Amino acid sequence: MSMHYLAALCVTVGTFLVLRLLLKRSRSNGETTTSHGRLPPGSRGLPLLGETLHYLAASSTPGLLPPFFKQRLERYGPIFRTSLAGEDLIVSLDAELNAHVLQQEERAFQIWYPPSFMRVFGADNIAAKLGQLHRHMRTLILRLFGPQGTRLVLLHDVQRSARDELRSWLHLPDVEVRTATSRMIFGVTAKKLMSHDDAAASGGSLWKWFHDWTSGLLSFPLSVPGTTFYKCMQGRKNVMKVLKQQLRERRRRSSSSRNSAAAEREAVDFLDLLIDELNKPDAVMDENTALDLLFAMLFASHETTSMVLTVVLKFLTDNPKALQELTEEHEKLLETRIDPDSDITWEEYKSMKFTSHVIHESLRLANIALVLFRKANQDVHIKGYTIPAGSKIMICPLASHLNTKVYKDPSVFNPWRWKDIPEPAGASKDFMVFGGGLRLCAGADFSKLQMAMFLHCLVTKYRWKAISGGTMVFYPGLQFPDGFHIKLLPKI
Ligand code: HEM
């Protein structure tokens, strides 16, 4: 083969490759039709990086769609393609598609989360489990945090902790609400999950390690000493060490009590339930799955609710009319009681209509689970597009929560709007803060109860003054960059 021929071949092949690349790029800026059908429009952005920088850089405030989503919604419509952190994704801001995807769990779609998520939550976390095992894990969680447990046990525990916590705030010159409520809720849930006496088991560090871990959740997943993500992974390592020690110690004790033919032991916390599962001859769960579940529960049970509770307090601070109506609702409850200091009953809790509106409105705007992920198990033809089997889907329910056809002036905090909209017991296509389908949040009832109890104790005994902070941003998850600092005062 002559040199000329080789050079000509190289030029031809080179030109062909460049043209292919250019064609592919220009096609990916619009809609693409493949043998599967018409793919949603979109762009894959830069090689490797995709559109990650834009996704991470663009911040927003509650009540507004973050610019990443807004710009693409305007350019492509509510269903589009992108590429984030090395993953090609189909993004859905469409209420019907979102609901369809969640309702089709383990049929046309199934849960999938990006590798960085699986790293921080553990390879055996509940999102990695399907079918019977997933159902089984949910049943265990709901034994503690489902409607029965919430009504009979948690109602009282939660009230007690809210009362004690608020009493302690009175003596402080400045309370950062997010940190204080996170620590308070951790106190209740760590006890329910593993009868955890924080001071005894880890020198008081368990909550702090969790805090390190959570601070890095939204950081770039580069685990090199000095980075936030590294601190996050160290936090997880420390927490897992304590959990493993406690699980092994408890298993050892439970097997020796069985050997000594001790009387039938009653499960007293979630760790006991897990150990009973592991000890079964036909156990479906292994130790790693149990540990990752315990870890996820410790996280989910305090980080989520404390964030929304901080949002509630911020909205109430800025909306005196809403605060007044909320206070009146709780004062009325006190008037009907013989002993104003007695525990709130389940019936009283269920009668807190305006409180429930305030919580739903805050959840709608705060939208702490900004995106959910799934993958398609088969080709799905919907809304004129094809979602090919194997596609990864990123659902953003926020767009439905800001839909002007359902929520008038959606960016405004208006708890009264819920007087005319039925509050969804589970999920609806227009209100998906707790997800939906088989994976509907297992702590939704508990979370709402906890917020209502806290508000009851707060507005019946105290008032507060905002000192500093309180600015909320999405970047890309909801945060209070300067915290929210208040001074608690006795009620006049
Ligand atoms: C305001 C508070 C909360 C919000 C907004 C929230 C949101 C969510 C969402 C959106 C999902 C679905 C994830 C998906 O489908 O991919 C979920 C699942 C879950 N949540 Fe929550 N959550 C909250 C509080 C809690 C609490 C307090 C607990 C525990 C006590 C909890 C435990 C769980 C569990 C275990 C799952 C996984 C369910 C499954 O895979 O079957 N959550 N949560």
From TrEMBL:
Organism taxonomic ancestry: Eukaryota, Viridiplantae, Streptophyta, Embryophyta, Tracheophyta
Binding-site residues, heme: C441
Cofactor(s) the protein requires to work: heme
GO CC, any one term: membrane
Keyword flag Heme: yes
Keyword entries, A-Z: Heme, Iron, Membrane, Metal-binding, Monooxygenase, Oxidoreductase, Transmembrane, Transmembrane helix
Pfam families: p450
Protein name, per record: Cytochrome P450
Taxonomy, superkingdom: Eukaryota
GO annotation, biological process: brassinosteroid biosynthetic process; brassinosteroid homeostasis; sterol metabolic process
Entry-linked CDD domains: CYP90-like
Family: Belongs to the cytochrome P450 family.
Main localization category: membrane
Protein location: Membrane
GO molecular function: heme binding; iron ion binding; monooxygenase activity; oxidoreductase activity, acting on paired donors, with incorporation or reduction of molecular oxygen
